[in-house]
Amino acid sequence: MFNFKLYQEGLRRTKIFGILFMVVMLFASVFQPLLHIFEHTQRLAQRSAIYLEFGDWWYLEEVIPVYGVAAGYIMLFSLVGALFLTLSIFSFLNSRHGSDFYHAIPHKRETLFGSFIATVLTWVIGGMWLSTAISTVIYAISSHTEIYLGSIILALLGVSATCLLIVAAVSLAMSITGTSFSNVITVGLILFLPRLVMSIFVMLVIGNFGIVSFTDFGILGNHHYNILIG
Length: 230
Hints:
two-stranded parallel ribbon, 7 helices, 3% strand
C-alpha cells in the first residue's frame, strides 16, 4: 500500500502547490495571532483609560481564550489545500498519456494510491499541525492569553478528519470521472448530496407529522454531526 519512491514522486508532483500552501499556512499562523493580540492590547488600553477613574477594573477583558484551531484561517486553508493538492496529484487520471504511464509502472494501483494519498496528507496534516503549533506558541508568549490545549488538539483531530474526508472524496471522484469539471461536480455530490437528501427527508417528515422534531432523528437530523459542515 505504500512505496517510498512513489511518495517522493508525489512530493515532486505537488511541490509547487505544496510550498505555496506551506507559505500561506505559516503566514496565517504568525499574522493572525499577532493581529489578535495587538487588537486586544489596544482594546485593553482604551478600556483602562475609560474605567480607571471609576475603578471598574472588572469590566476589563484580561485574557484571550485560545481554543479550537489557534488561528481560524489555518482550518480554512487546510480544507482548501486538501482539495487542490489532491486534484493536483491525481491530475494524471484526466490525461490518457499520464494515466497510461502511471498504470504501466511496476507497482500495484493500491500502492500508487496509498503513496500519493500519503503525500497529500503530509502537506496538509503536517502543515496544519505545524502552523497551529507556531500560532499556539505565539499566543502562549503573550501575557494576555489563556491556552486550552485539550480543545486545540480535539479541534486539530476534527479538522484532520475533515481533510481526510475531502482527500478521499476527491480521489474517488477522479477515479470515476475524466475531466476537471466532472471531478469538481462529483466531489460536490459525494460530500453534500447525502446530507442534503437526509435533510430533505427529515423536513418532509416533520412537515407532515408535526409531533416529531429534528432532535427525534438523532444524527440524521442534527447537522452538527456532519464532519464537513458541523
